[in-house]
Amino acid sequence: MDKVTLFQKRFSELLKYSDIKQTELAKAANVSKQCISDYKSGKSVPSIDTLFLICKYLDISADYLLGLQD
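RE: above sequence
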């Protein structure tokens, strides 16, 4: 599984099993709701700054989302 697909899978699962809404996360990460949808679908990946904000808001390791750690 390539890294983009792994990120997409893990990111989607995190949102699916949390109570966090895409609009809340988009606001916290300073991106549009469409960007969050694109990350979930694998159409795009976040910048390093956006990834940092996403990880901080979700309280998750970037290494986990990026597939560097289980």
